[in-house]
Amino acid sequence: MGTAAATPGGATRRPRADAERNRQRIVAAALDVLLEHGPDAPLDEIARRAGVGNATVYRHFPDRPALIRNVLIAVMDETAGFAEEALAEEPDAAQALRRFVHQAAASRLGATAAALKPWFDKDAPDYVAAREHLNSAVQALVERGQDSGGLRPDIAVSDVIVILSQLTRPLPGTDCPLTDRFVHRFLDVLLDGLCTPNPSPLSGEPISFEALRLRCEPGGDEA
Amino acid sequence: MGTAAATPGGATRRPRADAERNRQRIVAAALDVLLEHGPDAPLDEIARRAGVGNATVYRHFPDRPALIRNVLIAVMDETAGFAEEALAEEPDAAQALRRFVHQAAASRLGATAAALKPWFDKDAPDYVAAREHLNSAVQALVERGQDSGGLRPDIAVSDVIVILSQLTRPLPGTDCPLTDRFVHRFLDVLLDGLCTPNPSPLSGEPISFEALRLRCEPGGDEA
């Protein structure tokens, strides 16, 4: 691991682990730069912060939509990982949900989805897989919470993910440096609402992700 | 009301009530058009939907930021009015809060603030007055809720307004026609969290509007 091997042609071949490390550094740098500067952020700046050359960025991500998509996928996978860890490590179902919700705020899912989702094809197989991964990880948390009686039975996994994304979005129009100071308060209120022993009836029906995808994403079926 | 009076020069002078009606039609049309097309929406389209000429738009609003600011002010005033009505008409404090929260979603405060707030001067006296009007109307609801024991004591009026704005924002990147179908579910969960008899400790401190204004709005002091 980490050593370079000579190819028959004499060039230096980077082992897969190095390539993967570069890829992760590009994605991490791109997350920061895209959230700061928006989807048109200069790729030069992303390469610079990742400590790689522009050519390395292009080798991993053939175009801007592919890079943007992979940044959101990384955040979704991280968020799914938080759900899986909380489920595995917290014996109490309500505490597992609480831990997940607060960690998900740190993964910047709300900010990233808001900033990046309009800028790539939502039918790309890797994005579809990441969405299913996140949904099933949160579904497992929600099911355990509802089975234990700690989580209100009338809430759907789509409700949890969409509320969480909305509450953790940056405030309108700015990079507000204070968002982190109050977002966890909001999540505490949300958790009290999700885990109340006396839930009020909920208005309407939970929305399915399929309906959201078809009707609420650019290029979706507006019918 | 509604009749035109001849001026000494022979021109027709519109009475103030007509002017006010035109102004309201322009603001209502601008709200729809700005939310559909963003802050660069064509003024022609706004005038057309309001059923007035472009000159009438310019007579009421000398420039685009003034129009945008007045659209948000109208939404804030409408939202403040919902809070005042709920306080006056609902004998039960928790029910007053519930009614206000669901009505506020209909006023599109979250969508409007998100779309329009970055595009005008937040020190304009009429905007400052509208903000204070909204804050004090919600403050009265929150205080009555807390005095009655129905609303958790550790929540601040700024928390309520910011959570409400965040939960009622359109989903990222789209005009999602389904938002109205699930936003009231989210608000029901929020209300259960706000009115729980057994509140969990809230993380952090409530943020003051003054801090938000100074540090989180374009042109604010970033220090």
Q: What features would you describe in this structure?
A:
Chain A has 223 residues and is mainly alpha-helical. Helix content of chain A is 65%, strand content 2%. Chain A contains 10 helices and 2 strands; from the N terminus they run ββαααααααααα. The first copy, chain A, has helices at residues 16-37, 43-50, 54-60, 64-89, 93-106, 109-116, 125-148, 157-167, 179-194, 209-216, and strands spanning 5-6, 12-13. In chain A, strands 1-2 form a two-stranded antiparallel ribbon. The longest helix of chain A is centred in the middle third of the chain and has 26 residues, at 64-89. The radius of gyration of chain A is 20 Å and the shape is elongated. Chain A starts with a strand and ends in a 7-residue tail after the last helix. In chain A, 39% of the residues are buried. The model of chain A is unreliable at 1-7 and 218-223 (pLDDT under 50). At the A-B interface, helix 6, helix 8, helix 9 and helix 10 of A face helix 6, helix 8, helix 9 and helix 10 of B.
